[in-house]
């Protein structure tokens, strides 16, 4: 199952622009509230240093791509319609959208750092809007959504517990649609200090505290401070970073990234997503306006912030928030190929702590059934089924049912 990353935020903060840049699609961008009435689903890539150079081979990737020694691994991106206050009680199709947001493994919370969006998500004079309040507003909607689902199922949870089920198992079942696991619930219980208190005796305050923690744990969220190219944004970015000092705040210009990727696609520039520079292929191909726009991006975004932030936010979500490791299963451990001779064909993203068995299951249930052990390409050592995979592991799985 590919990892899912959801874009949330108020209307007009730049979610669809971010989505278009990251997926290079053309979803409708507009300054009217509620343009995006349906969620857009697309594929983007998490990018990590490939092992091909270390092993000194030319690879033939199948489930991913290798660009200049960087492995691009597909992840799903969901662009949600703008959320508004009161979404959790159903305002602006809020319930529907919150349900989609809760499908995601991690969230990118896009705010307009330039302050060009008011409380209701309408465009306003830059500097007027309050992105800090917007962060609280929207995340509160998610918490209330979780709270509502839990409170709605209160009697069911109590019944479950009476019949011997644990609280984490019961809550995980109730919130399965929101991808909440029993492990998430256990962590949230610990963090909210409710581990030892009987669920039946929880107060409204306890419910709320638990919902807040559960939201944090099960939907890790990066704050994307977008429109950093607008002058009023740098001050708000500092404020956001101070206010949310325990969170990751990424300065971003979705529009700059979109411009760079389109220019790259048309062959005007050489640019790899996430890089700090681009190179103009042939000056004479550019119109004055295009050259001006590229200069603007260089001066206003890349010079001060090193990157546009789009690719960086995705990578941070995948590798830092979700703590994914990249592993490369092969069939032939000396040639590092699949059955057809493709070198380093596949890269899998697995959460840290995953074992050889988890990888086998991810590849094929049959492979997992007869799993014996794996062999590590670097050392030639046998790795037992419960060996915890490390980032950049290259290995072959040996199984009685099939050899992967
Ligand atoms: N200056 C600037 N404008 C942006 C940026 N990202 C989006 N916008 C503009 O903000 C407006 C709303 O963008 P959109 O992606 O539709 O926002 P959404 O409602 O959150 O999906 C559009 O006019 C975009 O061109 C950015 O990084 N910089
Ligand atoms: Mg949109």
Automatic annotation (TrEMBL):
Gene3D superfamilies listed in its UniProt record: 1.10.8.470, 3.10.20.30, P-loop containing nucleotide triphosphate hydrolases (3.40.50.300)
KW ATP-binding (keyword) present: no
SUPFAM superfamilies: P-loop containing nucleoside triphosphate hydrolases, TGS-like
GO cellular component terms attached to this protein's record: cytoplasm
Pfam families: MMR_HSR1, TGS, YGR210-like_G4
Occurrences of domain OBG-type G (ranges): 3-272
A GO molecular-function descriptor: GTP binding
UniProt protein name: GTPase
Annotated organism of origin: Candidatus Terraquivivens tikiterensis
Lineage: Archaea, Nitrososphaerota, Candidatus Wolframiiraptoraceae, Candidatus Terraquivivens
